[in-house]
Amino acid sequence: MNRRLFWKLCLGVALGSVALFWVIARLSGQAEEQMSFIDADHQRTLRQYALQAEELYRTGDERALRDWLRSVQRQEQTWAAVVQPQLQALAGSELSKRFLSEFSLGRDPSWKIHLYFQDNPIMDVPFADGQRHFLIQLPQRMRPGHYWYPARLLLELVLPLTLLVIGCLLLYRHLMRPLNRLQQATRRFSEGDYEARAGVLLGSRRDELAGLVETFDSMAERIGGLIIDQRQRLAEMSHELRTPLARIEMAVSLAEQGGAPTILLRRIRQDCTAMRALVEDSLTLSWLETERPRLRDETLDLTDLLDSIIDDARFEFPDRHIDTQLPVEAELTGSCHRALGQAIENIVRNALEHTPPDGTVSIHLNCDPQTYLLEVIDEGPGVPEQWLERIFQPFERLSSDRAGFGLGLALAQRQVFAIGGCLTARNNEQGGLCMTIRLPREVSAA
């Protein structure tokens, strides 16, 4: 199994960790080294103190020297002294000339100061004769490394955190680049571009994620071929069904002219008409579910459309009453006259079919600044609450109380969705079923 991604991640994390530790150690060492020496101005000050002490000592005025030392101690908040070390070798041993020349009671101002020691060191500046020394405990203000702990915090916490975040971002981009390409290809494929592939966007990458993309491309190629074949079969079926239906209708017309039994011919014609409508609705429903088009390029008057549909309904169902509450005009932008008209017609016809004779179907259109709310209420038996969503499935039959819903409501819901609205159903409090269409008054055609 290809594990390139695994090894790349292991190598990247390992090398990155080693590099991070090395950089932190190197920078910390350099920072500590640079902060461990007394500032040059303070070194000059200490040596100047030593020169002043030597001058006072040479004058022989011990009182003046003592007063000066006290003033220095008060000024620097430390102690200072002038000493003359007496070195005496014991047990017949001898002190070497090198030791005597290099001997000191404290640190030279140019030496490195340990930042981790809490007590300030003793600084030793010898007089010119090399026999006497000016000693002073390093004043706190001269101690180096005042910024060492903030710098240490920066180097040991902030810098690693920053580098780790940058490393995570690089790793995230490396992992997400093929996933983003896969997401783009998936979105294009879901929108109907069945030629969309993600592999061409990855270049020469070959790892586990590239394998995932290759699997998606194979799946997309297969599904795209199936969908195209399905379209072709639907088109062929449509052609094959329409042709015999047309011949049957023509034969019925000729038979009617020749004096065939009228009732039988009328029944044949009704069946042919129903078959044609069923074929047309099935093809339209399949197109809406497969392509998911956006039918939003027309502007219409919703009131005029409803008036036309209601007039036809009254003619078709003369034994039902239709109660309407419509505004004088209702302009709807970004819609489709044919799709919306067919959807409303199916909803109204469904309400009339399930309303008993002499019953009433109410059609109300309410307007607000953003939406139109169309309600179609029948006086039928209603639908159980748990089945309100199922009535929008093709050929759904819930019980023997209702005659079934065929394709009308399923097609209506898809058509309303295609023009930017929504269709829902609920049981009316006074009985019957209430179908509600919500349509935005202005819908973008994009």
Automatic annotation (TrEMBL):
Membrane-spanning parts: 147-172
EC number per UniProt: 2.7.13.3
Broad EC category: transferase
SUPFAM superfamilies the UniProt entry points to: ATPase domain of HSP90 chaperone/DNA topoisomerase II/histidine kinase, HAMP domain-like, Homodimeric domain of signal transducing histidine kinase
One GO cellular component, as annotated: plasma membrane
Top-level taxon: Bacteria
Localization: Membrane
Domain named HAMP: residues: 173-228
Pfam assignment, any one: HK_sensor
GO molecular function list: phosphorelay sensor kinase activity
Keyword set includes NAD: no
Residue span(s) of domain Histidine kinase: 236-443
Keywords, alphabetical: Kinase, Membrane, Phosphoprotein, Transferase, Transmembrane, Transmembrane helix, Two-component regulatory system
Reaction equations catalysed: ATP + protein L-histidine = ADP + protein N-phospho-L-histidine
Topology term for the membrane: Multi-pass membrane protein
PANTHER family linked to this entry: SENSOR HISTIDINE KINASE CUSS, SENSOR HISTIDINE KINASE YKOH
Protein's name according to its UniProt entry: histidine kinase
Organism, scientific name: Stutzerimonas kunmingensis
